[in-house]
Amino acid sequence: MRNKQELHQYIDNVRQALLDNPKGTVQSRYKGREGALLLAREMGYGLNDFDIEHVREVLQSGVFYQKLITDVYNKKVVVQSTFNNEAWQQIDLDKRQPSLTLEQVKSLSYGQEVYAIAEKVEKWRVNGKVKTWKRDKNRVQVPIKHGLYAHAYIDEYNFTQVSFNPPTIDRY
Fold first, then answer.
1. Of 61, 96, 131, which residue is a domain's last?
2. How far apart are CA 153 and CA 167, in angstroms?
3. Which of residues 96, 122, 148 is at a domain's end?
4. What is the pLDDT of residues 4-48, one digit of tens each?
5. Can you give the pLDDT at residue 126?
6. Would 151 be classed as within a structural domain?
7. Per the domain annotation, does 168 fall within a domain?
8. Under a CB-based contact definition with an 8 Å cutoff, are residues 146 and 124 in contact?
9. Angstrom distances, CA of residue 21 to CA of 15, 28, 41
10. Could you read off the pLDDT of 110-127 as tens digits, one per residue?
11. 91 and 113 share one domain
């Protein structure tokens, strides 16, 4: 993980690259509202290298928006919350929402609710006893149920896609 100072340096480097255009204008790829949102998405991918708490702090403080939109575009082409959300959505879901550990999976009990993190968020309920193996301590199987007909298992391969709390999309 890179530190907070390197995060600010990263933002400054991108800002300088955008301003160093020979014509003194924003590159055509990043012009207008759609261009600004594209820039936010591309910056979001780059933010994966930094500590999630530093990223959250920079987004909430407005430094990210001010340096990249206000300074580069000289006008408000996109609202700050929209710009920040576009960047935030590109950060790995694993970093935004902590998943269960293997020990937490082993301690699940009948009727407990968990949230599956896939294409969409679904609330599942533990539907039976947790099964563990004596010869392989890392092996686990937990039956879960969603709705009337959907059944699945949490096991040692997919437990990182399950959380106690529903994943939230932070809005700035």
1. 96
2. 20
3. 96
4. 888 888 888 888 877 776 665 566 677 777 877 887 878 877 887
5. 94
6. yes
7. no
8. yes
9. 11, 11, 20
10. 999 988 866 677 889 999
11. no
- For residue 88, give its domain range: 4-96
Distance CA(77)–CA(89), nearest Å, equals 19
**What's the confidence (pLDDT) of residue 171?**
46
Contact 76, 23 (CB under 8 A): no
C-alpha to C-alpha distance for 116 and 160, rounded to whole angstroms: 9
Quote the radius of gyration of the chain (alpha carbons, Å). 21
120 DSSP assignment: S
**Position 43, amino acid:** M
Lowest mean pLDDT among 61-65, 93-97, 138-142: 93-97
Q: Is 85 found in the same domain as 20?
A: yes
Measured at the CA of 122, the angle between CA 133 and CA 114, to 5 degrees, comes to: 40
Residue 53 covered by a domain: yes
The CA-based angle 129-130-133, given to 5 degrees, is: 130
Burial class (CB in 10 A: 0-12, 13-18, 19+), 4: middle
Determine which helix (DSSP H) or strand (DSSP E) holds 21, and give its type and residue range.
none
Residues 45 and 129 in one domain: no
* Helix (H) / strand (E) containing 47: none
Residue found by looking up tokens 């082409």 in the block: 77
